[in-house]
């Protein structure tokens, strides 16, 4: 059951990141000026963490 739970947790994290990345893309398309609000670095960090976790084939327990 742990693997199935992990699958759904990773899927939810991936969906959240995808939604946030799309929102960032739309915002950059609609706005001429680009301002740094920390979103880019946060998204890069989250993507890196998720990539490492997926490639390691291990899972952590939810808090």
What would a concise description of this structure say?
The protein has 63 residues and is mainly alpha-helical. The protein has one domain (2-56).
Structural commentary:
The chain is mostly helical and 63 residues long. It has one domain. The chain is built from two helices and no strands. The protein has helices at residues 2-30, 39-56. The mean pLDDT is 79. Keywords: Plasmid.
Q: Largest sheet, if any?
A: none
Query: How many DSSP H or I helices?
Result: 2
Supply the number of structural domains.
1
Tell me what portion of residues adopts beta-strand conformation: under 5%
> How far apart lie the N and C ends?
16 Å
- H and E order: HH
* Number of β-strand runs: 0
Rg, Cα atoms, Å: 15 Å
The assigned structural class equals: mainly alpha
What general form does the structure show?
Answer: elongated
Mean pLDDT: 79
Helix proportion: over 70%
Low-confidence stretches: none
Keywords: Plasmid
SSE arrangement:
Blueprint (H helix, E strand, L loop, with lengths): L1 H29 L8 H18 L7
Helix pairs in contact: 1-2
Keywords: Plasmid
Essential attributes:
single chain, 63 residues, mainly alpha, 0% strand, plasmid
């Amino acid at each position: 059951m742990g693997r199935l739970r992990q699958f759904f947790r990773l899927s939810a994290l991936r969906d959240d990141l995808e939604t946030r990345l799309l929102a960032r893309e739309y915002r950059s398309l609609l706005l001429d000026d680009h301002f740094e609000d920390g979103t880019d670095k946060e998204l890069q960090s989250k993507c890196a963490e998720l990539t490492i976790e997926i490639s390691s084939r291990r899972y952590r327990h939810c808090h």
